[in-house]
Please model this.
Amino acid sequence: MKDFLFLKLLDRIKALFASMGIDYPMMRRILQLKLVMNGRRSSTVINRDKSDDKNSFYSSLILYAFLGLFFGVFMLLPYPLFLKMNLVLGMITFIILTAMISDFSSVLLDTQDRTILLTRPVDAKTLNAAKLMHIVYYLFCITMAVAGIALIISLFKYGFLFFLLMLVILALICSFTILITSILYFAILHFFSGEKLKDIINYFQIALSIFMTVSYQLIGRIFNFVDMKIQITLRWWNFLLPSSWFAAPFSIFFMKERGPYYVMLALTGVIVPVIALILYIKVAAPSFEKNLQKLTGGGAKVKAKNSSMMRGVCDLICFNREERAFFKFTCGMLKNERKLKLSLFPNLTLGVIMPFVMMLSFAGRSRSITEFLRLITSGKYYLFSYFSVLFYSTLFMLISSSESYKGAWIYRAMPVQNPGHVLKGAMKAFICKYVMPFFLLTCLIFIGLYGVRILPDMILVFFNMMFLMLLIFKLSRKELPFYKDFRAAQGGARLGVVFLSFGVCGGLAAAHYMLPARYAFGFALNLGVSGALFVILWFISFRISWKDIVRGAE
Model:
């Protein structure tokens, strides 16, 4: 078994573990096994195709480091230090929190090791120490991947003391994220149990990831650009932004800012993680492991029941028995698949939110809400709905993964001659259950702002969205619904197809904007062409035989 550098570093302080009553050799062996298993854990932060022989965890670190390259560039910009550190630390905190929310529950809420190991000569203290060191390693790898380039640039640009301060701040950020996440999970574990608890955790992960994405947009609101000079105006609500807490010490020590806001922000950045640590040690930790046992109970899953509305929709839009059968099957599976919903719901919700977040960038031109509304309603800002198209168009590819993938043998056991009917029924169910409700919500908000005059535009956006979704489906690998494990391949369309979707979506949005502006019949032409392309692609995309299905899905 591979001997990791992290384990060799721990060997140098094994006396410290021994003094705490921890069986260090046993802890080392457990931790070594956990680190090996890291490579088999798929990331829900960055979805992509993976083969079984690839180390997915360490491959994801490369992508985190690529993001960190962009963060490091901000350290070189000639902006005030408080601005730069707000942006850099804000983005780093966002990435770490996203990783923790998406993947950390598999580490923190793991009960399998307790079930297996505590029945052997392994004491709870040793097992908890192994889990803690695993979390430290996990966080260290992600933090260094994301912040490593910014750290190196800070060392050469600002000196060794700046580098040390940034290391301390990164440690506080990691403490803040892990402790707040742990305490919040503890609160949920305390009040709920069994299957209900698993659902609550799933929805909580979805809501928190959406909240962090939207709240991160507030970081840019603390800076006002006046006459090409950056003016930093601190307000009371800066205390709601963790990036301001952690950026303030840099202004105090290196820019000699001694204002009360800076001092209070810096103190908040120290006090909040310390209080979180105390709460975790005194309140959460003593009963956290005991409450984790609730995850192993709760009985069987409740069988999903199709509503009368979905049954009526199924009878209306499905034209043969196989389509109807897999429409109902897909609806039932989508209701019970927790991991799949954890991947789908953030993207679906962000598809509603992001068009309006992008519109907020124009708020700086306005002095009041009334002026802002007048500004956006006087233009074609409803075309930001194409951001929703980007989010929704690739999501169908995700439903090939499932927690119940071992039951995929049923596809061959059933007398299904045409797999196109399977995929067509599944796509219709996915569109009706998820895509249409979220897209209609987006449309209703835009219609509330602009009036019913934009209804034809929303219809054109819908046709373009369906065309792009079918185009991605046509160009992607043909995989049956729910046939593979998340660990084997969490993701959908290949990277090239995803990049193509960006280009096609941009082209569709540009045509929607320019054709009506240049030609009197431009909108009608655009609507007719998009509708025709959608219909044609719908009829040709599902002409699939069993030999077209990816091997392993059979």
